[in-house]
Every structure is written in C-alpha cells, then in structure tokens.
Amino acid sequence: MSRMPRFHLAFAVDDLSAAREFYGSLLGCPEGRSAASWIDFDLYGHQIVAHLGPARERGDAAGDEIRNAVDGDDVPVPHFGLILAWEDWHALAARLKAAGTSFVIEPHIRFAGEPGEQATMFFRDPSGNALEFKAFQDESRIFAREF
C-alpha cells in the first residue's frame, strides 16, 4: 500500500538556537539530525531543514515586499506551512496565542460560507520566514475550484 509522499523543505535562518526554540519548542517539531550549520525538524511527518545563512534585513527574502490579496488579507509571499486537521489547527492557534505570538494575519475563517472555507493564520519564525497553517472542516474541499 502506498502512502502520501512527504515533502522536504530547506530554508534559511539567521540563528539556529532561535530556530530550535521556535520549531522545536513552540511548534513542537521533533528534532532530527543536525550539524553546526543546519537542523532537521519533523513537521507533522514532513522534513524541514533550517540552514544557517547570513542575517538579512526584514523585507528581503522573508517576503515582506511581496504580498497578494486573498479574501481581504494581505498574504506574504513566499510562505510555507501545513493543512492540519480542524481540531489540531485550533489547538495550535490557542498555543501560539498563549505564547504571545505576533501574527501577520490573525487566526480566522477565510472564504466563509464558500466551497473553499478554511481556518487560516500567518506568523513568522525568528528569521522572518512566513508560515501559514490552515484547516478545512471538509477536507474534500481543499482543491475546490468554484468560489
């Protein structure tokens, strides 16, 4: 029996200790292999790798300068994240709020009452990388084309 493929994403961070705290402690991603310049994390079964890179100014590759309007939100591009189960999304949103996370886009419901209705939130890691976590009550609507 085949399984859903797992993605691998490598991205730059300017502080491995801060990445370890954010991804490992705050988001709860178990740590895998690591070296002096990178750390593997298990993001819900997917492999993400924080690679130490040169410090950059906000507005650089972290996505501050590129934004797209989506259902009234000013979405940062690029970004990455996951589609979680509905209950897991709400638990993560509560944990992030309790930790005092500064949201780029506060947790809310997008496309309310439409086929693509989803819970969404955006925030940044300590290096400025934008993350989006979302959830659908009806996961069959993840790739719905009609809005």
TrEMBL record:
GO terms for molecular function: dioxygenase activity. Pfam families: Glyoxalase (PF00903). Gene3D superfamilies: 2,3-Dihydroxybiphenyl 1,2-Dioxygenase, domain 1 (3.10.180.10). The keyword Metal-binding does not apply. Signal peptide: none annotated. This is Glyoxalase/bleomycin resistance protein/dioxygenase. InterPro entries: Glyas_Bleomycin-R_OHBP_Dase, Glyas_Fos-R_dOase_dom, VOC_core. Residues 5-136 form the VOC domain. Keywords: Dioxygenase, Oxidoreductase. Transmembrane segments: none annotated.
